Amino acid sequence: MPETAHRPHRPHLPHHPLNALRAGAFSIGALLLLVGLGVLLGAPLLIPPLAASAALVHGAPRLPISQPRNVVGGHLVSAVVGFATLAVTGRTMWGAAVAGGIALITMMIARLPHSPAAATSVIVVLQGAHLLPFLPLLALATALLVLIGWLAGLLGPTAVRYPAAW
């Protein structure tokens, strides 16, 4: 059988060093913006899953899981799952593990898969986060990641259009 018979189509960026530098620079810029805004607001906006989301938005902008509805929706759905799980289990590792799995199920049913977002539910449970201010700050942070991805897609000769779909 030919080697290409089993190769799925993979939407990726052209192999060019400028694409890697560009993706890294915009990802760093987006994450630094979250840190700076968090300092101004007196509340952290950068949580680890958002770094993974930024990597997807800038490093794999054509993947379905990198699209705005998946980034924003996936994190918000997963956070709600985390809060529901926290209400039932309290701050436990067991609850956090269950929340991660239920977040995946919920994102898939809602057609909002975004793998980094499963970790958001885990963070909610382990940290015992409060719905307010966590959920609005998460919405703001994910919207900013998408906005910066969109702006990055408009700039430069190596620009890769983002989003591929809303």
UniProtKB/TrEMBL annotation:
Transmembrane region(s): 20-47, 68-87, 93-110, 131-152
Concerning InterPro entries, the annotation shows: HPP, TM_HPP
Q: Where is the HPP transmembrane region domain?
A: 17-154
Q: Which domain of life is it from?
A: Bacteria
Q: Which UniProt keywords apply?
A: Membrane, Transmembrane, Transmembrane helix
Pfam families registered for this protein in UniProt = TM_HPP (PF04982)
The reply to whether Lipoprotein figures as a keyword in the UniProt entry is no
Check the record and name the PANTHER family matching this protein. Answer: TRANSMEMBRANE PROTEIN DDB_G0269096-RELATED (PTHR33741:SF5)
* Protein name from the UniProt record: HPP family protein
Species of origin: Kitasatospora viridis
